[in-house]
Design goal:
12 helices, single chain, globular, 3-stranded mixed β-sheet, 16% strand, Rossmann fold, 5-stranded parallel β-sheet, 36% helix, UDP-galactose 4-epimerase, domain 1
Length: 311
C-alpha cells in the first residue's frame, strides 16, 4: 500500500488530539510539528517530532521536507498562524494543505463572526498563492452540540430550545471518533490529485429537533421542557455578539442555520462516501443509551450564558 507522507500541526485541542492520534497510528509516514514549549506527550505511534516556530520560515520549510500533505488542526486562537504555512508551502514539496475548519460553510452573516472570517481568509490566501487545499466539514460535533447547550439541547437537564423551524429541520451531526477516523481514512492513502481543492463534508447521522426531543423523552421518561426562539431573536443575538465582541456568536449562528434548514447545504455537495465500513453512532446510541461523549470543560461564564438560553 502506498502512503502519503503527512505532517500534522496542532494536537492539544479537544478535537485535534483525537484526529492527530488517529493519523499518527494510520500507518502513514508522519511528522508531528509543534511549537517551542509544547511536546508530544501522550501520543502513541511511530512518528518524527519536530519543534518549530512556524513564523521562522527557514525552520518551517526545513520541517516540511519529505512531506506530501500538511494537516493543520489549530484552534480558533491560532487560525491566523496558518498564513505562515501558505507562505512556506510553495518552497517545499508539500502537494496539499488541509487547513483547520471542522464546521460548515458560512454565508454572509456567518462571515461577520471573527473566527469564520479568519478561516475564510486562510482559504482565500491559499487560492491566491496557488496552494491546493482540502477542507473537511463535519457540521456539528455531537459532544458540543448535544451536551453543552450550545445548540439549545440540554441532555442532562432534559431541555431543548427550538430555533425557527428546527423542530422539523435536519441537523448534521458527527462524533469526535467518527471525524478522527475520517481523517485517518481519507488522507494517508488517497491519491493526492483526487483531493486537490475539494471541500469534503462528513455525515455520521442527521436528526430533526423533534427526533432529538423524542430521544430526550425516552432517556428521562418524561417530555423535555421546550422553549422557542424566532429567527429574528437569534439574528438579534448574533448582531449583539458581533457588535460587542461577546461570546457565543458562533453558537447562535449554528442554531440559526439549523432553524432555517441550511445545515445540510452548508456541507456542500461532496459528502464523504468512504465510511461504509466505519462504525457509526446513532441518536439513540448517544442520548438514550448514554454513549454521548464529553466536550471540553467550558468556562463558568460561558456555562451561565448557555443556561440563559432556556429562560
Amino acid at each position: 500500500m502506498l502512503y502519503n507522507r503527512i505532517a500534522i500541526y496542532g494536537h492539544r485541542g479537544w478535537a485535534s488530539s483525537a484526529i492527530a492520534q488517529a493519523l499518527l497510528t494510520s500507518g502513514a509516514p508522519a511528522k508531528l510539528l509543534y511549537r517551542p514549549g509544547s511536546n508530544a506527550n501522550g501520543l502513541k505511534g511511530r512518528f518524527d517530532e519536530i519543534k518549530v516556530d512556524v513564523q521562522d520560515q527557514d525552520a518551517l520549510r526545513a520541517a516540511l521536507e519529505d512531506v506530501d500533505i500538511l494537516i493543520s488542526l489549530v484552534g480558533r486562537e491560532d487560525i491566523r498562524l496558518q498564513h505562515a504555512f501558505i507562505q512556506a508551502i510553495p518552497h517545499t514539496d508539500v502537494q496539499l494543505f488541509v487547513p483547520s475548519d471542522l464546521a460548515f460553510r458560512c454565508d454572509e452573516q456567518g462571515l461577520r463572526i471573527s473566527v469564520n472570517k479568519e478561516k475564510d481568509g486562510v482559504e482565500r490566501a491559499a487560492r491566491e498563492a496557488g496552494v491546493a487545499t482540502c477542507v473537511i466539514l463535519p457540521g456539528v460535533f455531537a459532544e458540543s452540540g448535544l451536551n453543552t447547550g450550545l445548540l439549545g439541547v440540554d441532555v442532562v437537564g432534559n431541555r431543548i430550545a427550538f430555533t425557527g423551524d428546527s423542530r422539523n429541520q435536519v441537523l448534521n451531526i458527527c462524533t469526535r471518533p467518527y471525524v478522527a477516523t475520517a481523517y485517518a481514512t481519507i488522507f494517508p492513502t488517497t491519491p493526492i490529485r483526487i483531493l486537490h481543492n475539494r471541500t469534503i463534508g462528513l455525515s455520521e447521522f442527521r436528526s430533526t429537533g423533534t427526533e432529538i426531543a423524542t430521544a430526550l423523552q425516552k432517556k428521562h421518561g418524561v417530555a423535555p421542557q421546550i422553549f422557542q426562539h424566532s429567527l429574528a431573536e437569534v439574528d438579534s443575538q448574533i448582531d449583539e455578539c458581533v457588535r460587542l465582541g461577546k461570546p457565543l456568536g458562533l453558537g447562535w449562528y449554528c442554531r440559526r442555520r439549523w432553524g432555517a434548514g441550511d445545515c445540510v447545504d452548508a456541507l456542500g455537495g461532496d459528502v464523504w462516501d468512504g465510511d461504509r465500513e466505519v462504525e457509526k453512532r446513532s441518536l439513540e446510541d448517544l442520548i438514550v443509551r448514554g454513549k454521548l461523549g464529553l466536550y471540553r470543560e467550558l468556562p463558568r461564564e460561558i456555562l451561565e450564558l448557555l443556561d440563559k438560553t432556556f429562560y
